Amino acid sequence: MRKPFVAGNWKMHGSKASILSLVTGLNAQANQLGDVDVAVCPPAIYVDYAKRTISSEAIAVGAQNMAVEPVQGAFTGEVSVEMLKDFDCEYVILGHSERRAIFGETDAEIAQKVKVALTNNVTPILCVGETLEERESGVMESVIATQLDAVLDVVGIDAFSSVVIAYEPVWAIGTGVTASPAQAQEVHAFIRGKLAGLNSAVAEKVIIQYGGSVKPDNAKELFGQADIDGGLIGGASLNADDFIAICKAAG
Ligand code: PGA
């Protein structure tokens, strides 16, 4: 049995005041979470603040990105994996579609970042997903396979027992349009099947989150699908009641 995992991706949102209010709401309800792993991923500069204000052991903290270079050095503006570890970040989101599309991150860079995270015992949340155009032109599976292969080629299948995958159809992110449970399940099964072709034990164990307009009212049905093991939550993770409701739906 896989333990579901829900992570909040706060993206570039928040202030000390709004984060304190959000965390206060999370702290107050954290005892209701049940059997689910939970993390929140604030903007890098607020990781420490979130860590210090979250009072529940049930809520871990992660980052939204990190440098590809494995050690610190002359890389203005970057945050290294060592720095994430210094602040007890357990997770790092890598390859989010916004990083791929807006900041031009390539499959090769993302694969290196996954390797650096794994080498340093920070769990990568590896995002994959297709655009609407790719889905409609029938290349969805090959797009996702390419994104996975880039990482598999660098770290190998066995390392995927320490990787979380987030399937996030680009067309569902922040749009209010969510993939139907059947659409999401189809891709999750494809991903797990692809990994199973390499190592069935690893495939059986790997957590595959769904992300893209998950809300309290659609979470239960999505998380009820056989291969959906929780979610990566953007907008709804900025509201404590909504985020807790989504976590409870997974647990
Ligand atoms: P959303 O974002 O829940 O706001 O659609 C999900 C994500 O980008 O991780």
Quick one: overall form? globular
Q: Tally of extended strands?
A: 8
Give the overall pLDDT as a whole number. Answer: 97
The CATH homology group name: Aldolase class I
Oligomer: single chain
Largest sheet: 8 strands, parallel, barrel
Entry keywords:
alpha/beta, 8-stranded parallel barrel, globular, binds 2-phosphoglycolic acid
Task: Note down, in words, how this protein is organized.
By secondary structure, the chain is of the alpha/beta class. It has a single domain (5-250), classed as TIM Barrel (Alpha-Beta Barrel), CATH 3.20.20. The protein contains eleven helices and eight strands. An eight-stranded parallel β-barrel has the order 1-2-3-4-5-6-7-8, surrounded by six helices. Strand 2, helix 2 and strand 3 (59-63) form a beta-alpha-beta unit. Helix 1 crosses helix 11 and helix 10 packs parallel to helix 11. It is globular. It starts with a strand and ends with a helix. The model has no long low-confidence stretch (mean pLDDT 97). It binds 2-phosphoglycolic acid.
Task: Please outline what is shown here.
The protein has 251 residues and is of the alpha/beta class. The chain is 43% helix and 15% strand.
Q: Could you outline the blueprint of secondary structure elements for this entry?
A:
Layout: E1 5-9, H1 16-29, E2 37-41, H2 47-53, E3 59-63, H3 81-86, E4 91-94, H4 97-102, H5 107-119, E5 123-128, H6 132-136, H7 140-155, E6 164-167, H8 181-196, H9 200-205, E7 208-211, H10 216-223, E8 230-233, H11 240-250
Parallel strand pairs: 1-2, 1-8, 2-3, 3-4, 4-5, 5-6, 6-7, 7-8
Helix pairs in contact: 1-11, 5-7, 10-11
The chain binds 2-phosphoglycolic acid.
2-phosphoglycolic acid binds at residues 9, 168, 173-174, 211-214, 232-236.
